[in-house]
Structures are given as C-alpha cells and as structure tokens.
Design a protein that fits this description.
With 184 residues, this protein is of the alpha+beta class. The protein has five helices and nine strands, in the order ααβαββαββαββββ. α3 packs parallel to α4. Keywords: Signal.
Length: 184
C-alpha cells in the first residue's frame, strides 16, 4: 500500500515536472496528474525537447563542435544539406559531452535532414548525428567504449558507451545514436 502511494505520488510529481518543463502543463493535466498511477513495468515516457536549427547551431558552436554540409545549406528537406531542425536537445548535449570527454575536434556531417535510414531512433527524429572519422575520434571511441559487434543490416561495427549511446563506424563517418546526453 505504501509503495503504491509512493509510486503514485512520484508519478504525479514526475509527470507534472515533465509537463511543466515542456510547457504543456494545462489546468486539466495539473488536476489529472495526481490520479495517474506509475506502473512498475511500463516503459518510461520522457518528454523530448526539440530544437530549431538556429538554437542547435548556437549550442553546438558554444560547445566547440563544428559542422559541414556538402550542399552548403541547412534545409531539412534537402539530402545534401546538414540540418539540425527538430533535433533533440539531448543529442546536441551528447555531441558537447563527446567533444569535452574526447578532447577531439568534432565535425558533424549529417543531422536531421532527409536521406538517412528511417526508424524510431533516426536522424529525422532527432536522435542521430554523423561525425567525420578523424583518428582522434576513432581512437577515442574504440578505446573507450565497448565493442558490441556488427550492426544488423549493414555490418557497421558498433560501440556502446556507458550511458547507452551507440557509435557505429560506417564507411565514411561515425553514425551516433544518442538516447541521452551521455552524462551532461
């Protein structure tokens, strides 16, 4: 009984905090939140903060991360552009964490633009970035993270960080899936 009440209170507090943080808090959700139980086996629903291209670019620049575009553009609907439109905040923070932890110069070559593989944790949905495979970055990833074997489908060698993010070595870049900010 105490555990259930604690879970319900925790669920209400976390639910309200997530709603308030994302700016989606309404009078109805504030009233409804306390009655929502927290199921022990339900996947955690975490609000994802999306950024505009401009906001993401400013944050990346401040973190010392650069980017390039083969088309010299940032239009999300053009595959030769490098766009950050609708990227997850945690993905941008993850790039900053990688820059700080590795000490390497980082250059992004792919963001949220069209032309990448689809899926829930895709470039388009804001979870992935591609990086130039410098020797500094490659040595850091392969020397720091756990090799988890080839990726099904394309055979790209994968490395998993302690925080759970996945680094896959494709033919001409590192394809990184950020499930979180990597300890920011």
């Amino acid at each position: 009984m105490t555990v259930t009440r604690t879970r319900t209170r925790l669920g209400a507090l976390l639910g309200g905090a997530v709603l308030a943080t994302t700016g989606v808090l309404t009078a109805q959700s504030a009233v409804a939140a306390p009655s929502v139980p927290l199921a022990a086996d339900a996947p955690s629903a975490v609000a994802v903060t999306k950024l505009s291209h401009s906001d993401a670019a400013n944050r990346l620049r401040a973190a010392g991360v650069s980017w390039t575009s083969s088309g010299g553009c940032s239009d999300r609907n053009t595959p030769t552009c490098t766009s950050f439109e609708q990227i997850n905040l945690t993905t941008v923070q993850g790039a900053g964490t990688l820059k700080q932890a590795s000490g390497c110069a980082l250059t992004i070559t792919g963001g949220t633009e069209t032309g990448h593989a689809s899926g829930a944790y895709s470039h388009w949905n804001g979870y992935k970035l591609d990086f130039s495979p410098t020797s500094c970055l490659s040595n850091y990833i392969t020397g720091t993270f756990s090799n988890i074997g080839p990726r099904p489908g394309d055979g790209a060698q994968q490395y998993k960080s302690g925080s759970g993010n996945i680094y896959a070595r494709e033919s001409n870049h590192w394809d990184v899936t950020y499930y979180n900010c990597g300890g920011c």
